[in-house]
Recover the amino acids of this structure.
């Protein structure tokens, strides 16, 4: 049962980290419908870190050329397009980094059974996706101003139920950014934050508090990594084809089921 739950968590994380349906919200719902999760994984931190590392790694594999361009841009003496793009990524990280540092303890209280919050925030995600899907195609790139605004959306998406990719892509598109550029920027801007959060958890000692059970962690990692590769590739195609409305309908349906389940 432990290995099956690890497999399910890996699939959920791999799909929902990139598809605009909220990975945190869906992981909370999986825990609700599979109470055995807390029994088999009492140290939720270990599995969470491993799953996020897997999806971050899948992002690095798919966008290795873009990431290489960002790294080169950071150390470039010339004020070229690579340097501009790297600086925009840094600007986008500021809001979420501030929220994570100042309100980390409060954020932790929003997880672990806050299913009413998950349902309500899924409705917010559904509305954002619906509006973004109706926007007209453009050729506009992400600006510094837009980077910061999208960064604020990423910070708000810390709430369980608000899709990080959905919120950042939707806000970018509503600001007039090209849809494919919006999707790529959304996936790239989160990588440094994921590794920063992982480093904080590992250095803080939370990750190694209990003994590591390597097999379920390995299964969760491999499943999330492979699923993430497929979901990320699929998501970019869907954004270009203006098919976010289907995810909007899905998020609203899951929100409705969640709210009914919570109330009754």
């Amino acid at each position: 049962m432990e290995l099956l739950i690890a497999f399910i968590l890996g699939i959920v994380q791999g799909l929902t980290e990139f598809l605009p349906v909220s990975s945190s919200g869906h992981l909370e719902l999986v825990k609700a419908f599979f109470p055995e999760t807390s029994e088999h994984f009492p140290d939720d931190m270990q599995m969470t870190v491993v799953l996020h590392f897997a999806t971050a790694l899948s992002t690095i594999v798919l966008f290795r050329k873009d990431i290489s361009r960002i790294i080169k841009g950071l150390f470039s003496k010339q004020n070229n397009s690579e340097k501009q793009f790297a600086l925009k990524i840094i600007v986008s990280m500021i809001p979420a980094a501030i929220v994570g540092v100042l309100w980390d303890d409060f954020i932790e209280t929003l997880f672990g059974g806050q299913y009413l919050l998950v349902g309500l925030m899924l409705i917010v995600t559904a509305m954002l996706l619906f509006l973004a899907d109706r926007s007209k195609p453009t050729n506009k790139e992400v600006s510094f101003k837009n980077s910061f605004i999208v960064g604020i959306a990423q910070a708000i998406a810390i709430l369980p139920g608000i899709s990080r990719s959905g919120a950042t892509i939707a806000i970018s598109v509503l600001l007039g950014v090209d849809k494919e550029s919006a999707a790529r920027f959304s996936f790239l801007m989160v990588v440094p934050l994921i590794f920063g959060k992982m480093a904080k958890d590992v250095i803080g000692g939370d990750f190694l508090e209990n003994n590591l059970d390597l097999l379920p962690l390995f299964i969760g990692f491999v499943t999330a990594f492979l699923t993430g590769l497929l979901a990320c590739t699929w998501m970019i195609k869907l954004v270009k084809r203006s098919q976010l409305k289907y995810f909007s309908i899905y998020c609203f349906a899951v929100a409705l089921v969640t709210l009914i389940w919570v109330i009754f």
